Amino acid sequence: MTRRSFFARNPSALIFIACLAVFTLAVTLMSEAYGPGLISTSFVKTLGKTLCLCLVALAMDLIWGYAGILSLGHMAFFALGGYMIGMWLMYARTEEIVVTALAQGGLPATPEEIQQGIATQIFGVVGSSDLPAIWSFAHSLPLQLILALAVPGLLALGFGWLAFRSRVTGVYLSILTQAMTLALALYLFQNDSGLRGNNGLSGLQNLPGLGDTAQDLVSIWFFWASALALGLGYLTLSWLVSGKFGSVVRAIRDDEARVRFLGYPVEVYKLFLFTLTALIAALAGVLYYPQAGIINPAELAPIASIYLAVWVAIGGRGRLYGAVLGAAFVSLLSSLFTSGRLPDIPLGPASLNWVDWWLVILGLSFVAVTLFAPKGIGGLFDRFQHIGAPDRKGAQLGPDDGSLQEQEAQK
Amino acid sequence: MRLTALLVAALMWLAPLPALAQDAAAIVAENREQIEKPSRQTIGPVIAALAASGDPMADDILTAWEDRRLVIRKSDQAMFIAVTEGDGFALTALDGTAAGSAVAADVTALKPNAGVRGLIATALVQFTLSDPDPTIRADALASIARDPTAEALEPLRASLVSEEDPVLKAQKERLERFLTLRFDADPAARVAAIESLGTDTSLDVRAALNPLVATKRVASLGDPPGNLARTLVPGTDLTTVEAYDILVAASLAPARLTLEDQRAALLANIVDGSVGGIPVAALNTQEARNRAYTALEVAGTVPTAATDDEVTAALAAHSFHEVYVEPDATVTSAATATLAAIDRKVAFMQAADLGLDALSLAAIFFLAAIGLAITFGVMGVINMAHGEFITMGAYTGFVVQLFVPDYTLSILIALPVAFAVTFGAGVAMERLVIRHLYKRPLETLLATFGISIALQQILKNVFGTQARPLTAPGWLDGALEFNDVVSISYIRIAIFVLALIFLMFFLYLMKRTRLGLEVRAVTQNPAMAASMGINPDRINMLTFGLGSGIAGIAGVAIGLYAKVTSEMGADYIVQSFMTVVVGGVGNVWGTLAGATMIGSLQKVIEFLNPSNTLAAQTYMILFIILFIQFRPRGIIALRGRAAGD
Lengths: 411, 645
Fold this sequence. Notes:
Oligomer: heterodimer
Strand order of the largest sheet of chain A: 1-2
Strand content of chain B: 5-15%
């Protein structure tokens, strides 16, 4: 039996990569760095951030849409990745400043003085002047990059191992993951957590060693990196879900007990997926926060992870392009509505302020999508391709939820 | 017994004083020169003689002197007590007879300095302590208690005899003991006073005893000086840096060279681009700087600083001790023993107080979670908007209070109104959204979450972001205090009672009513229940409404002690789910157990780490995650068919 090529079997991946490439090229050519400046630098950053959010939405789609595990804690991994890279960015940047300042003093600075200066500079805001132990590796980019993946990965591995081995499933797992991210957020909110409490890490947009490079250029580089990560992530995940592995994962979603009885180690599959998606989320965070410039514990609040679920649900679960579409659509719309640039709509005596009412609209449209269009935006593509679910009407013919129904059977 | 002996001793000691009774005016005349130009060192006996004279005028004379109203008439140099009257003064002679008046220019007022006025004030204490007006006596006692001095002891003892008010007498005796244990000259009397306190846990007893056991750290070459508390070993009991600092502070060793000082010294001695023969550019390590500084030391350009070896030697040569500030060992050992006994009792009280706190927190969690226990536990529906229902209840209370100014009445109205509002909201939500999602629990979670976002934002838009007050009736103000340690506020008691009422109501509803029976039937097997003539749709709607309505009432209760903001419900939602999950789904006793466990756990962690409630919550959630590992179905797990799967 001849095997057709990967793209022949997954035309959507090819289309997606092509669209992403065209989009990246278009933005580059319209940016201030490489073109006439039709797109402002801040908007390039917004687009770059949106691509990172799309990447974490892909991870969410894999764990929720494909494996049926509604994790309400994946933004914790995203933010942890951001914190880890933020530590290096802040440390290295502060080091530059401190070395410059100490050079004015007449004597060349000793390593101890530099260390002390950095600690005072970074932790003065929380009333401390010692560098906590968790900053031991912050001086080195490679080490900190390893940590950016290792910390969220190990956390996901440990948490997932505990949760899956005790067969916590369904809504219990969702609430447990939510508790995890809440616990982490509360922990980071303390001043003595070693990550500057609720001040968070800031000034991350200034890359060390690139002080002279304009933000125009830096922003487009990060945009490229985000697009590349998203493209690679998409290809990896669509390869992963298109094979046998994907079939088992979908089967776990549909009937976990049956898969277990067929002899598959369900817990291992789940743990692998949970950790893999956590790593992808962390990677997205590493790319996101240098563009955002600031990270604080509010990024780990349970609400952030729930928004992630909202994006994926609105985009359409169980299809990778749906997650990307949903994340891009909702987050761009969100930044448009909350920017305060849209004029108020006068409604008789009152007026509709978009900033105030956007969350109401989002919440209600989310309810509407859940109720009336469970397939989300992705469902529109099914319309084009004339793939529709059977119109299931009438009484069920069997005892189970999936049994044929009267009118189906008559066809 | 001991106390009586003490009092008798005090009285006998005081007895000779009244025998000296003498005319106050005569004493003033005798000591005229000293009084006109008093000095703090020598005026003491004069003031004491005046105070002890027994002449009722002595009080007036001393008061006037302190107030700078003791004047000398310029014409005849006679001394008078002056009272401002119009532009001038009304004069009273020192024997108490009125002596006409004088304009300000005719008299010179005596102006004793602050030190002398202090002595006079102390002497006056005796008069205020025996003042006929009980409020003045009480004030005098309070002022002595605030700022206890050795001088106050004698007047206080003297005034004890004549005190008639039993309350004030008790206060005076208590204060007399506090002063005795600190200031009495006789150690035996002090020890007796300390031991007479027993295990009284009042704050003022501890405040009186603590100064006796205050310590300071000292270094010495030989035997420890003074009243030794314990010996310190550098490196274990205190860091070597601290130990050396003690030596430096006591001038027993030269100061260590700080890095800043070294840097300044090096900067000051740069010659031709190098310091001590080492080029400036090479001074980028501490080691190089030390070498350069040593070179300067050898050259004699900078003072010698203690090196690490010298520091070690100095530390080894001296011994370090903690000594009591109080020199008398019998007193400190008595105070330590009494404090230890008190501490044991206080620890016990604190445990009781912690228990009360934990109970009231558990009641709050239970109230917040019981609505969820119905919707989530019984129906299996995840309602993420539960927190917003709590908020809606609280805002309903706020709105009711806008219209009904009487707080008691408004709360009584708010409770049913809040129930009605959230019951309606719950029924609407069930009809419009949840009904369609019974087979998709994960999507119920998401849809109700969408509602939660929307509701929260609507509440924020309507009521604004600032906290709104929900005022408790006056009779709920204050706290029930058992003693200085154990107390609980009445609002928390009310919430506890409310939680109990709900527990009973819930049990009655589920076990004793037709509705409860039908709810249980629909929960266990909807199809079978339907075939028995129960309308599952109607039951689901009512159950959901009931759960939401209870959330509304919980909102009013929580709003009474917390600030009402649009986010207050969201603060409780995760904890409420935890309560239900930890306790065991589908069982109200489980919810109770869960609330008790989470409440006490949080309080215990807060007690162990009082500065940090955030950390307490973090550890609690971690504990819950681990707890779920070992009892995935909660504390009280349903068994068999009732478990649902």
